Task: structure prediction
Amino acid sequence: MIGEYLDQPDATAQVQEHRWHHTGDIGYFDEDGFLYVVDRTKDLIITGGFNVFSAEVEATIAALPGVRECAVVGVPDRKWGEMVTAVVVADRGYELSEDTVIASVKAAIGSVQAPKRVHFVDTLPKTTAGKIDKKVIRAGRST
Result:
């Protein structure tokens, strides 16, 4: 069992309840008992009462030709609660448009999951571990 986060008592208190360490992972078991982790609760986007898994949208966008990497976050929206927003780094020599990305996601997984906005950037912020830093992205994007 994990005891605590090093020198972070507030973070430890937030994830521990009744001696359990809650990671925030969202998953399901299939009929054969295999566990599939589909996202993290902090990355879940709730838009218009629907749950959108950012990882599913990211995988769909990442499969498009010319996409080097991407991140999908929910940004505050007065009408929907959160708005699905993608931040995309295109490969050199590729011209991607916001309309192309949105239409492709709509066709593949539906309009609720499709980003309402797509921002193109040269690089995505990374953590010291080399992972995309969604906290930085969320802090810099709003409607």
In short: Strands lie at 16-17, 20-21, 25-29, 35-40, 44-47, 50-53, 67-77, 81-90, 117-120. The chain has a mean pLDDT of 87. Residues 40-140 form a domain with the GMP Synthetase; Chain A, domain 3 fold (CATH 3.30.300.30). Residues 27 and 37 are 4 Å apart (CA to CA).
